[in-house]
Amino acid sequence: MQCSNALPAGCAKRRLASCMVIPLFVNNKCWGVVCFYSQRPQFFDHFYRERAGELSNELSYGLERLINAQEMHRLARTNTLSGLPSRLQFEEDIARLAASGAQGTVLLVNINRFDEISSAYGNAAAVGLLRAISQRLRTAVTEDMLLAHVGVGRFALFLPASEPQAPADFVRSTVAPMLQGAYQVKEHKIWCTINAGGAMLAEDGSTADELLIKAWDALAEARDKEARFGMYDRDADRVMSRQISLEVELRDALERREFVNYYQPKVDLRTGKLAGAEALVRWHHPVRGIIEPNEFVPVLERTGLVIAVGRQVMQRAMEDWRSWYEAGLEPPQIAVNVAPAQFRCDSLFSDIERALNTAGAHMQPLSIEITESSLVSDHSRVIDVLSRVRALDVPVAIDDFGTGYSSLAYLVTLPVDVMKIDRSFVMKMSQDAGYMGLVSTVVTLAHNLDLKVVAEGIETEEEAKLLKLLRCEQGQGYLYSRPVPADEFAALLKTH
Fold this sequence. Notes:
By secondary structure, the protein is an alpha/beta fold. It contains 18 helices and 20 strands. It has an eight-stranded mixed β-barrel, surrounded by five helices.
């Protein structure tokens, strides 16, 4: 602070007789001054100088906060590594566009293996690469577009609907050729590839967060398909949403024991008599009624719920078998499907023992059916499990034979009892000589391995006659009966 009586000539014209100057400091640097003038000589005495000092401190503090806030605002909206607008700035820009009713596509561009590049060449090289990529992207952006650095090795662009190029064309003809290739960063030569995904404003979302998430989903799917670019698929997302919702319903259904058993008879093709049955799961939905397994079993398998549901199916099959037996009927052996996840589960053997004890193990009420895909993992473990199951007098069948990928040499070594021919072969057998030969080969192979053969999906008398001629022992299908509830199967038992 300084007071002076030596005033410039201009002050005399205004009749100013004294002056006081207050410096203003921001972040410990002189930012400016405030000058006070008076027409009275020696006006700025000790009192005014003290007040001026207080005013200087308050103004300096206020300016410092304001300038720092502006700098923080700028820094928050700028990525310090690349100098591009940050994700926060992109979010604000997209919100502004959405509010104005704008339409377009948010593109997310990912630098593949960026973390590996950073680890291999060091952080300085990774930052240099980001800056080089940012410079290239700037040259591709028009005034109507937006460009931002939104994550580690990830950049976002907004292409308004008015752009002449479609998003896929823009990526393939401009972004990919521009970004992919070699970069010389200091002493390192770094090779980069990219993938990109797109989501549409406002069809796919109205916020940057929604659109970037969906663009990433599209990018990830494109990368899985070894494609450079992918657009978000709303229909696929609805399917996924439905599956997630269905998973919640299935967990509740498991707790409420809404899964029920239906039984499809197996018939001795030589005599036409009932020779067995297969237990098939159905979902007794409280609103929709009986739901077929093709609608919910894939979700059970994907979520792992198939283990608990399979355990219930096996237990209920043996409970039903026991009730039929105690009613004076002669129930046949019931085959229960064991899913691959069940077969890999350590509880399988104890689940089988528990179910057998319910029905009476000595009466051999149970057999299991497993698909080829369950058998192609750990060979020694597979043989061990199957051997332990057969030691309980529980026969093992290979289900849907011919649809898997296991080798015949592998199958020869397995301790199994039955081979089931998939219905797809049975259906084509009477129209295609090639399939007839294939079924004949499978039956011969099974008999050479001392296995019984069961044909699935028999719907016509012609199919049944052909299978009988090929010496197939048993068959099941709509020709004999659809899968029926336990009480209806009990009625079938009374007629056989």
